[in-house]
Design brief:
Layout lengths: L1 H62 L5 H14 L5 E5 L5 E7 L2 E7 L5 E7 L5 E8 L8 H8 L11
Antiparallel strand pairs: 1-2, 2-3, 3-4, 4-5
């Protein structure tokens, strides 16, 4: 009888261990699935914000190809305020000119390049987009040579590229 009780306790212990292991594995699988779903949702939300900013800026430039820089800057600023997850907007044009609006701490930095070898205007704005200062420097930079520009101009619609420095 003692041997029977010991065997019964051992079988019960092994069965409980197997059941606990399966429950633990199921719980871990559910947790990883949940975390994966949350991560995918967050990435999609950030990507959607970036796409909205790009699509809005592109539509504005296509409607008014000769848009004044001041008007474009104001609308880009508004897009960055509306989408705080987007850090910067960069516009490269076929003539080699470019425009960059980038968050910088509590304000914004702006670069307005006329083209390779031409003067680039560097502006500093506060959080409400009030101009704080402006300088100029000659920069030998051509956006048309950058991989993101080449890939973007080769296809229609929004083109996703690798990150760049």
């Amino acid at each position: 009888m003692v041997v029977g009780i010991l065997v019964l306790q051992m079988v019960t212990t092994v069965a409980a261990g197997i059941a606990a292991t399966r429950l633990s594995e199921d719980a871990a699988r559910d947790t990883f699935s949940y975390v994966g779903d949350l991560t995918a949702e967050r990435v999609a939300r950030y990507a959607e914000a970036a796409r909205d900013v790009v699509d809005g800026t592109t539509a504005q430039i296509q409607r008014t190809p000769e848009i004044e820089t001041t008007e474009l800057l104001g609308s880009i600023y508004q897009r960055l305020v509306r989408e705080p997850s987007v850090r910067a907007i960069y516009v490269g044009r076929p003539d080699g000119s470019y425009l960059v609006v980038r968050r910088d701490g509590s304000g914004f930095d702006v670069q307005i390049g006329a083209g390779p070898g031409e003067a680039t205007v560097l502006r500093d704005y506060d959080a409400r987009f009030k101009l704080l200062g402006e300088t100029e420097q000659v920069v030998d930079y051509d956006p048309r040579e950058r991989p993101w520009y080449l890939q973007g101009s080769a296809g229609g619609g929004t083109q996703w590229t690798d990150p760049y420095v």
